[in-house]
Amino acid sequence: EDKVVQSPLSLVVHEGDTVTLNCSYEVTNFRSLLWYKQEKKAPTFLFMLTSSGIEKKSGRLSSILDKKELFSILNITATQTGDSAVYLCAVRNSGGSNYKLTFGKGTLLTVNP
Amino acid sequence: DAGVIQSPRHEVTEMGQEVTLRCKPISGHDYLFWYRQTMMRGLELLIYFNNNVPIDDSGMPEDRFSAKMPNASFSTLKIQPSEPRDSAVYFCASSLGDSTRNFGPGTRLTVT
Known about the structure:
heterodimer; A: mainly beta; six-stranded mixed beta sheet; five-stranded antiparallel beta sheet; 11 strands; 0% helix; B: mainly beta; seven-stranded mixed beta sheet; four-stranded antiparallel beta sheet; 55% strand
């Protein structure tokens, strides 16, 4: 059974701090890893990673994947209060027509002013 | 693009009642997913459809849960009879092939 573990479960920082969120996984026939941001409603897509060592970047957010060590990190620099959310990591395997995503339980990030 | 539409947004019902959640996927998307989110278990896939056909319902917790997709623009998730442990946020998501999921706003279900 595919498994995704995120750490820490929660994190409180001050505006301007840099944070690193972790995601480790076990999946048969890995295909991709995705990061989502969830505020008070539906998860919204951030990044999809398929290759090791290639950083994906969007503004102050960046993410990288290590397929050898089976983990990914999500970095947020110069955090703002609007970054407060639950960050979800999910993995997808490549088994045939299997389009299932297995999600971690998320990291709750709180950015205080 | 209206995004994925779900209704109702909030539902409060008594144990034993039937509950029907509705979803309209993004037009043109060929995959539709139903997820349930709780604090204890996180986000779990219940069932997904491809071109209106159920592909994998292994996540459906028990026979009280059923899902249908009569056409490409509509799906329902039904719980009959409902129980307090079914209280959760239910998300519908759609995608075009192997692309990222677009999630709906969710239905917050409370069963008393």
